[in-house]
Amino acid sequence: xxxxxxxxxxxxxxxxxxxxxxxxxxxxxxxxxxxxxxxxxxxxxxxxxxxxxxxxxxxxxxxxxxxxxxxxxxxxxxxxxxxxxxxxxxxxxxxxxxxxxxxxx
Length: 105
Known about the structure:
about 100 residues
């Protein structure tokens, strides 16, 4: 006995796959607490670039907040040690990158 087909054609099967993938990406962003990505290709150049800059700034802010929380959860010995100092340098670099991106806006 043949298996029951969910989709009438390959085109419908591909469309269902794309819908599932888009839903999975959105769920992943929501799980991380990030906003949905804008539909950039449909915007004119300047507006698209401004939206991209805002998205980059939002990601850097989230990254910086997570890094600071991570550092605060570590012991005083870790923060004062080699790894802590190297991590502080990385945090400073992210903070600098955030400032550079903010200057573009």
